[in-house]
Design goal:
This protein is an all-alpha fold. Helices cover about 60% and strands about 0% of the residues.
Length: about 100
């Protein structure tokens, strides 16, 4: 189950509880809180901690890919191979077909 900061929901529930203290409508507080939590859970949210963890993993992965790309380019230069195509897959101007 997804855990998230429920401070805002708790504050809202406390205000509702104070407003209807000792009334038959006391169950409204629980119902509103449950309804809000249920709606938020359906939004497929992640906690800030999960987001930060995945951002760190992505950063490390990008750094590793960049190091590997640099190493591959260095090995290709050492072997006399042509450099890889640019990211947009367009051939360099020197390789463009003659008109």
């Amino acid at each position: 189950m997804l855990n998230f900061n429920t401070q805002a929901l708790d504050d809202l529930a406390a205000r509702i509880g104070k407003a209807i203290e000792n009334s038959p409508a006391k169950d409204i507080e629980k119902n509103v809180k449950a309804l809000l939590q249920s709606g938020l859970l359906r939004l497929d949210l992640v906690t800030r901690q999960e987001f930060d963890t995945q951002a760190q993993v992505l950063l490390r992965t990008r750094e590793k890919v960049e190091r590997l790309e640099a190493k591959v380019a260095e090995l290709e230069r050492a072997m006399g191979m042509a450099p890889p195509l640019p990211a947009d897959n367009a051939p360099p101007a020197s390789m463009a077909p003659a008109e």
